[in-house]
Structure formats: structure tokens, C-alpha cells
Design brief:
Layout (H helix, E strand, L loop, with lengths): L20 H6 L7 H15 L14 H11 L3 E4 L6 H7 L7 E5 L14 H10 L5 E5 L4 E5 L6 H4 L1 E3 L1 H5 L10 E3 L1 H4 L3 E6 L6 H5 L2 H4 L4 E3 L2 E3 L5 E7 L1 H6 L5 H6 L2 E4 L6 H11 L8 H16 L11 H22 L14 H6 L13 H21 L5 H4 L7 E5 L4 H8 L5 H7 L7 H17 L4 E4 L4 E5 L1
Parallel strand pairs: 1-10, 1-11, 4-7, 7-10
Antiparallel strand pairs: 2-3, 5-6, 8-9, 12-14, 13-14
Helix pairs in contact: 2-3, 13-14, 13-15, 14-15, 14-17, 17-21, 19-21
């Protein structure tokens, strides 16, 4: 469920590619439709065992096979899913299944293939210039178009409209060449995506009917027989798509496939997604990423949260970035001498900073922070049982015997925390099970604080949070 970084666009096509129509014919180039091109490249990747949708996490056994079948069938596709399920990323990844370079008539507005000119102007050029017709090459990264559907989107934006400049130049209103083409025809021979399709006004949805079925366009009474060659894909929220009836039935009927997306099915996949996507400014150890993943899933499943709104994967990603920022702040203010590493105490910043990203059920007003804090404590306890269940922790319990206490907080450096702890029986085993074998002071402090918090949550250790932000663990 994720979008890898867009590669830098190549400056120019390789020099050995044909540059005229005659040279293109001589090279043996064969013209195939976009859907045939996608099918052939998808089959080639499958046979080679390559990743078909790079950067997309958690869909290998569920969504990906359904989307592959739709592409192999040559169907236009709607992805149905709640917010933050990687629908847009998945749509953008389809560009990677196109040929790296494809020939176009040089200067063509609609990326017309030299063998199949669409517009009257291009047909005249082919007739006049013949085999000397100049050929340009288009990179696949430029063969993707995208529009976020909004209520103010017009037919002109998507399909086209009469261009007053061309009319002013002396062309008659009845001349089809007075039309300025919209986004859809300009993505001819590529992939065009409409995000949040149900948000399009119904009269605008009507304009897509011919594009999907007859593959031509109509603008202000003109019926232009332009056999567009493209894959039309869209995303939608299931509630908008099926319950509210905000998409017209004929348009639904014209999409060949509906593919349901979902949130990560397992905690490990949620962790992988956060690890891949989060731009952290300090190290966030794996056990804290698991806490955030479990916390996100708990919020998503909580009866106090509106299930129709969904809890986006961006929530977990932003949480990891917030926790890392808290670690960097402590590092800067406390004078830590080693690299900043996040600790359990940093997790609580997520509740106050990201609470606004969650939509609660009516009747939960005033309890939002309380609910989130309870779910976070539950996530910490579950992670403790998952990673340290059965571990020997008596050495940590003995740290606070005879009235001793251990103080930590967002201004207590790692070195100071470790000085208070000293040598602890079982610490090396704990760090190993948490994946912190290469124990720098920051990582060791992160492991120690996680154990102290876990002992508190399992009622084996008292904890007091002071007004100045310090946390004191004791018996």
C-alpha cells in the first residue's frame, strides 16, 4: 500500500531510435494498443518473477491478483477503498508496465502514433510528408494523467472545449480544429486516473460514457470520432460508490472491473509500510514501530471511532515521524552525546498531535484523548507480550526496591537514564529480543524504558508523571 519516489525524467530518448516514419517502418516496429502493451509487459514480468507493482506493500495475495486479472482482460478499473489504502499509489504504479519509450508524431497534441494519426491536422501531415514524417519518442513517465475529481471540475477540464483563441484566428465555430483538448484526450496512448470519482457532478460523469465505451469524445455539439487509446482507471470510497448513489449507473456499468483495497491485514505489514514510508529524523526502533502499528489498528477497530471515515495508513506514518521528532527534540535540549533514538515516553506525543486525524462517533465528545491514551497503553502491552513474553525481567523489578526510583522523560538524556539503571541482569537478552543487539546508549535506553513501561502496564511497577514532564518509576 505504498508510492516509491518518482525517478528523474530522462533528458532525451536514446539516439539509436528511429526518427522518421520510414525508419520506424524499416525497424520492424509494431503498433499495439495500450491495453495490449500493458498485458504483454505484465505477462513478461510474471514469467520473470519480477515485482509487478513496486513500492506497494501488503497487496501481494489479495488486491494484486485481482488487478492483474483485470489488466490481462483489458478492463478499465475502479479501485474501491477507504482513505489511506494506497489506491493512488497503486494506480500510478501502472505506468511501470508501459514500454519505456513509444513513438509519437512529433508535435502531436494527443501523442498520436505515426501509424495511426487521429486528428485532421496529423492526417494531413502524414499525407504530405509521407515516410519523412518526423517521429519523436515519449517516455512512459509522461504517459500518465491524473485528475482529482472535485465538484468544480468541468467537461472542458476532462474532455475539451472550444478554444476562443483559435476562433479569433479566423477558424469557423463549426471547424473541429477549434477545440482545445482536455486531460483525457491528451493522455491518449497512456493511463488516465480519476481520483475520488463519485465527487464528479453527474453531468460531468456523463461526459465519460463515450470515452469508456465508444472511445470517442463529444464537445459542445461536435462529435469527434477520435478512437482514443488509453486505460481509464479510477478510485472511489465504497460508501460513496455504492450507498449514496453519487455515481451514475451507466458509468459504473462501463468499468470492466471493481477491485477492493484494504488496510494491512497483519501487524508486520503495517510495520513494513511505516518503515518504508516514514521520513524519520531520528531512529525509531522496531519495537516502537510495532507499538504504533498496533495502536493504529486498535484505533481503526475501536467502536468509539467512526468506521465509515477509516483510519488512514498515513496516521501510522505521521505517528512514526512525530515520535522521531520528539526524540530529536530531546537530543537537542538535553545534550545527548550519541545519535537520537526514540523511547516509549515519546509515543505519548502522538495522542495530542494526531488526535485530529481521527473521526469519533457521536457521543464520544470530550473523551477523545482518554480513548486514544487507553488504546496506546493497550498497544504497548500487546507489543510487550509479543516481543518479551516469558523473558526474565526480575532484574528490572529489583531496580526499584528499597525505595529507589528511576527518572526519565523528554529532557532526560540516554546516558543519565542508563546511569540510574546501572548493570541489570537480563538486559542483554531483552535488547536481543527487541532487535537492539548493537546497543548504543540511545538504543539501550530505549529498551530499558520500554521494559519499565511494560512492567508498569502489567501492574508490577508504579509510575508517576510529574507536571514538568518527568516520569518516575518506583515500587
Amino acid at each position: 500500500m505504498s508510492i516509491s519516489q518518482t525517478p528523474a525524467l530522462p533528458l532525451e530518448a536514446p539516439a539509436d531510435l528511429p526518427r522518421t516514419l520510414g525508419a520506424l517502418r524499416a525497424s520492424g516496429h509494431r503498433h499495439v494498443s495500450v491495453k495490449e502493451e500493458l498485458r504483454a509487459n505484465l505477462v513478461a514480468r510474471m514469467r520473470a518473477g519480477q515485482d509487478r507493482f513496486p513500492g506497494v506493500v501488503g497487496y501481494e495475495d489479495t488486491v494484486a491478483p485481482e488487478l492483474e486479472r483485470a489488466l490481462l482482460a483489458g478492463h478499465d478499473v475502479v479501485l474501491l477503498g477507504e482513505r489511506g489504502q494506497g489506491k493512488t499509489r497503486l494506480l500510478r504504479s501502472l505506468v511501470g508496465l508501459l514500454d519505456e519509450w513509444t513513438p509519437v508524431i512529433e508535435g502531436s497534441e494527443l501523442n498520436e502514433h505515426p501509424y495511426a494519426p487521429l486528428t485532421p491536422a496529423s492526417r494531413r501531415r502524414v499525407a504530405a510528408e509521407g515516410e519523412d514524417l518526423p517521429v519523436a519518442w515519449l517516455h512512459r513517465s509522461l504517459r500518465y494523467g491524473e485528475k482529482l475529481a472535485t465538484p468544480d471540475t468541468s467537461v472542458g477540464d476532462l474532455i475539451g472545449d472550444v478554444d476562443p483563441v483559435k476562433v479569433a484566428e479566423g477558424r469557423a465555430l463549426g471547424d473541429p480544429e477549434t477545440i482545445h483538448f482536455g486531460l483525457v484526450p491528451r493522455t491518449n496512448r497512456g493511463v488516465f486516473a480519476i481520483n475520488e470519482l463519485p465527487d464528479l457532478a453527474e453531468r460531468i460523469q456523463v461526459s465519460l460514457l463515450n470515452v469508456l465505451e465508444e472511445r470517442d469524445i463529444q464537445v459542445r455539439g461536435y462529435q469527434l470520432r477520435l478512437p482514443l487509446d488509453l486505460l481509464l482507471v479510477a478510485s472511489a470510497n465504497p460508501e460513496d460508490y455504492t450507498n449514496r448513489g453519487r455515481i451514475i449507473t451507466p458509468l459504473k456499468d462501463r468499468f470492466g472491473a471493481e477491485v477492493r483495497t484494504h488496510y494491512p491485514l497483519e501487524v508486520s505489514l503495517e510495520v513494513d509500510l511505516v518503515r518504508q514510508e516514514a521520513a524519520t529524523v531520528a531512529e525509531v526502533p522496531g519495537h516502537l514501530l510495532e507499538v504504533l502499528a498496533r495502536f493504529t489498528r486498535a484505533v481503526r477497530e475501536s467502536p468509539a471511532v467512526d468506521p465509515a471515515s477509516g483510519v488512514s495508513a498515513r496516521f501510522a506514518i505521521a505517528a512514526a515521524e512525530t515520535v522521531s521528532a520528539a526524540a530529536l527534540r530531546r537530543h537537542a535540549l538535553s545534550g545527548e552525546r550519541t545519535e537520537p533514538v526514540a523511547r516509549v515516553g515519546d509515543l505519548h506525543t502522538v495522542v495530542s498531535v494526531l488526535g485530529g486525524k481521527v473521526e469519533f462517533e457521536q457521543g464520544e465528545e470530550g473523551r477523545e484523548i482518554e480513548v486514544l491514551e487507553h488504546l496506546l497503553r493497550t498497544a504497548i502491552a500487546e507489543t510487550y507480550r509479543s516481543l518479551l513474553g516469558g523473558a526474565e525481567l526480575s532484574g528490572f523489578s529489583e531496580l526499584v526496591t528499597d525505595g529507589r526510583t528511576i527518572e526519565t522523560g523528554d529532557l532526560v538524556p540516554a546516558e543519565r537514564l542508563l546511569e540510574q539503571v546501572g548493570k541489570v541482569h537480563g538486559l542483554s537478552q531483552v535488547l536481543e529480543r527487541l532487535g537492539l543487539e548493537d546497543a548504543t546508549p540511545g538504543r539501550a535506553a530505549s529498551g530499558v524504558e520500554f521494559v519499565l513501561e511494560s512492567l508498569h502496564l502489567t501492574r508490577r511497577l508504579d509510575k508517576l508523571v510529574l507536571d514538568d514532564g518527568r516520569t518516575v518509576y518506583g515500587s
